[in-house]
């Protein structure tokens, strides 16, 4: 019984398929999901600091306001928006719509473009409001 | 040929013994998170970089605190389920898989617990 499971045939993985937009966005959906998982720590740090007093809050705000902090938050915004839009595509598919090849390819590209545009828009508004 | 027993068919849980529950909970939390996160993003746009007293005052608002709490709960359930899927897909050694699944549960609950405590503390005690 020792090596039975090790010798089982594997189903083909990523490298045997042609790289297409829907596949790329599927991979990005999973990566952004994983990034958001750890990005929750940013939200936690912000909320906990707000609950802990002005000194902690100002320190976290300073950290988030630094160049590195702003870059991380920008990436976090993009990951969130991309994953959210990707999630909407998944809801559409779960309801049984949008499986046509041309349409789903277009939507995969639109997901990427819209996520970047919306991220830039959110940050532009933040910088103008501030 | 169908080898399933009548009871097994009625339960409909399949070999993983959990049926579609994982899938269903990922979808319900994702549907909940769409409006919750849109609200959250707008809130952050308005309050990013604002002074402490103003931010805490806004977070203490009962409506904001409720939305905040719901967002935290839906998020930690969703992120735990998502990471579970990633671990089950890529970690093949049984021991490591179980260890990571437990770590995932602990991490999600810890982050969620801390966030909820912070939200409630701001709402009730400022």
UniProtKB/TrEMBL annotation, chain A:
Subcellular location: Membrane
TM regions (residue ranges): 27-48, 60-81, 110-129
Matches recorded under Pfam families: Sdh_cyt
GO process annotations (BP): tricarboxylic acid cycle
Organism superkingdom: Bacteria
Main subcellular location: membrane
Cofactor descriptive note: The heme is bound between the two transmembrane subunits.
One term of GO molecular function: metal ion binding
Binding site for heme: 83
Alphabetically ordered keywords of this record: Heme, Iron, Membrane, Metal-binding, Transmembrane, Transmembrane helix
Keyword Membrane found: yes
Subunit structure and binding partners: Part of an enzyme complex containing four subunits: a flavoprotein, an iron-sulfur protein, plus two membrane-anchoring proteins, SdhC and SdhD. The complex can form homotrimers.
Function: Membrane-anchoring subunit of succinate dehydrogenase (SDH).
Record's protein name: Succinate dehydrogenase cytochrome b556 subunit
Organism encoding this protein: Xaviernesmea oryzae
From TrEMBL, chain B:
Compartments (UniProt record): Membrane
Source organism, top-level taxon: Bacteria
Cofactor: heme
Keywords noted in UniProt: Electron transport, Heme, Iron, Membrane, Metal-binding, Transmembrane, Transmembrane helix, Transport, Tricarboxylic acid cycle
Alphabetized Pfam families for the sequence: Sdh_cyt
Gene Ontology terms, MF aspect: heme binding; metal ion binding
Gene3D superfamilies: Fumarate reductase/succinate dehydrogenase, transmembrane subunit
Main location, first listed in the record: membrane
InterPro entries reported for this sequence: SQR/QFR_C/D, Succ_DH_anchor, SuccDH_FuR_B_TM-su
Membrane topology, record value: Multi-pass membrane protein
Keyword Phosphoprotein: no
GO cellular component, one term: membrane
GO BP terms, alphabetized: tricarboxylic acid cycle
Alphabetized NCBIfam families for the sequence: succ_dehyd_anc (TIGR02968)
Functional summary from the UniProt entry: Membrane-anchoring subunit of succinate dehydrogenase (SDH).
Subunit structure and binding partners: Part of an enzyme complex containing four subunits: a flavoprotein, an iron-sulfur protein, plus two membrane-anchoring proteins, SdhC and SdhD.
Protein name: Succinate dehydrogenase hydrophobic membrane anchor subunit
Species for this entry: Xaviernesmea oryzae
């Amino acid at each position: 019984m020792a090596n039975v499971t090790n010798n089982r045939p594997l189903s083909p993985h990523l490298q045997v398929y042609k790289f297409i937009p829907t596949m790329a966005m599927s991979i990005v959906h999973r990566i952004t999901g994983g990034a958001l998982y750890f990005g929750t720590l940013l939200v936690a740090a912000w909320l906990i600091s707000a609950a802990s007093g002005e000194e902690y809050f100002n320190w976290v705000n300073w950290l988030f306001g630094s160049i590195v902090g702003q870059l991380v938050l920008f990436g976090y915004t993009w990951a969130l928006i991309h994953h959210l839009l990707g999630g909407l595509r998944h809801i559409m598919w779960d309801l049984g719509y949008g499986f046509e090849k041309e349409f789903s390819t277009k939507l995969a590209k639109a997901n990427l473009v819209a996520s970047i545009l919306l991220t830039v828009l959110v940050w532009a508004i933040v910088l103008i409001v501030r | 040929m169908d080898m399933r027993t009548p009871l097994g068919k009625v339960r409909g849980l399949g070999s993983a013994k959990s049926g579609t529950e994982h899938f269903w909970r990922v979808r319900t939390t994702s549907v909940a998170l769409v409006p919750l996160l849109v609200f959250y993003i707008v809130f952050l746009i308005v309050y990013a970089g604002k002074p402490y007293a103003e931010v805490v005052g806004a977070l203490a608002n009962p409506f904001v605190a409720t939305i905040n709490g719901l967002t935290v709960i839906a998020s930690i359930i969703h992120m735990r389920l998502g990471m579970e899927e990633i671990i089950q897909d890529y970690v093949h050694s049984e021991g490591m898989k179980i260890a990571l699944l437990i770590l995932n549960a602990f991490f999600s609950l810890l982050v969620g617990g801390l966030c909820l405590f912070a939200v409630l503390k701001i709402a009730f005690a400022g």
